[in-house]
Specification:
The protein has helices at about 1-30, 35-45, 60-95, 100-110, 115-125, 130-135. With about 140 residues, it is mainly alpha-helical. It contains 6 helices and no strands. The chain has one domain.
């Protein structure tokens, strides 16, 4: 039975590597929105840099506010989800926070195809009876 538990822990360790990969990729994907953030801030700092060709009027301040706010919110949301995925990765190895792992797996279902595959494997692995022994403190 101990060999079976060791094999189960090895499967959780491999799954945690997949989670870490998806978390890092998700975090780097959120960096795309730095363009929106800096473009909006640049528009706020110097609205005359971007002028309408037909009228010669500067870009509205509302545009800069919208771009920088949306870019900042997108970065914050992507990095928050990436942090949760990385925390779930660590929790898989340590055998803690089973509810968090389930929640993150549901979030990762939207990240097709790698996140969906990892989420399904997570549901299968955590539904086994050995999961009760690994996550026994909860």
């Amino acid at each position: 039975m101990d060999a079976e538990l060791a094999a189960y822990r090895q499967n959780l360790r491999l799954l945690s590597w997949g989670y870490a990969l998806v978390g890092v990729l998700f975090g780097f994907t959120g960096c795309i929105f730095f363009f929106h953030l800096f473009f909006g801030l640049f528009t706020l700092i110097d609205p005359g840099a971007f002028r309408d060709d037909a009228t010669g009027e500067p870009m509205p301040v509302f545009f800069g506010l919208t771009m920088s706010t949306m870019g900042g919110c997108a970065i914050l949301s992507f990095w928050t989800i990436a942090g949760l995925i990385l925390l779930a990765s660590r929790s898989l190895v340590s055998g803690r926070r089973k509810l968090l792992i389930y929640g993150v797996a549901v979030l990762m279902l939207m990240n097709f195809p790698l996140g969906s595959a990892l989420a399904v494997v997570t549901f299968v692995l955590l539904s086994k009876p050995l999961a009760a022994r690994v996550f026994e403190g909860e």
